[in-house]
Amino acid sequence: MADVHHLLLRHGLDEARRLQNIDKNSRVCVDAAHEVLCDEQQAIGIAHAGFAMAALPHKKPNSPVWERDGGPVKLLIESGLDANKEPVGIPYGSVALTNTFISSDTSSQK
């Protein structure tokens, strides 16, 4: 993506689109890079693709490890440990939703 940013900075959007006009994916990358470079207020939020499949469980998990399959990627969420090294559990239900909202809201306030 850094190459696309340099291309945009050096040649501008129209020329970068022309130079990257290999396929639709390349054009989408140029347009996305342009949006990021133009976002002076940092309003665009970008998350790793692994987090896009990371909806936390609705019900209490039966084990200290919760897993989610996403094709070639598997996401594992493990319980934290308390001071006695006992599992504290994985957030679920409304607690998980609240934690997710607070995390995303905090990162968007930067």
State the gist of this model.
The chain has 110 residues and is of the alpha+beta class. Helix content is 47%, strand content 15%.
Sum up the structure in keywords:
110 residues; alpha+beta; two-stranded antiparallel ribbon; two-stranded antiparallel sheet; disordered C terminus
Q: Please, how many helices?
A: 5
The beta-strand count equals: 4
Instruction: Work out the helicity level.
Output: 40-55%
Structural class: alpha+beta
Secondary-structure element series: HHHHEEEEH
The N- to C-terminal Cα distance equals 23 Å
Largest sheet: 2 strands, antiparallel
Strand content: 15-25%
* Apparent shape: elongated
Q: Report Rg.
A: 20 Å
Given as residue ranges, the uncertain stretches (5+ residues, pLDDT < 50) are 105-109
Strand order of the largest sheet: 1-2
The averaged pLDDT comes out at 74
Description of the structure:
This protein has 110 residues and is an alpha+beta fold. The protein has helices at residues 2-11, 13-19, 24-38, 49-52, 93-108, and strands at 65-70, 73-78, 80-81, 87-89. 47% of the residues lie in helices and 15% in strands. Helix 1 (2-11) packs across helix 2 (13-19). The model is unreliable at 105-109 (pLDDT under 50).
Question: Secondary-structure blueprint of this entry?
Answer:
Elements: H1 2-11, H2 13-19, H3 24-38, H4 49-52, E1 65-70, E2 73-78, E3 80-81, E4 87-89, H5 93-108
Antiparallel strand pairs: 1-2, 3-4
Helix pairs in contact: 1-2
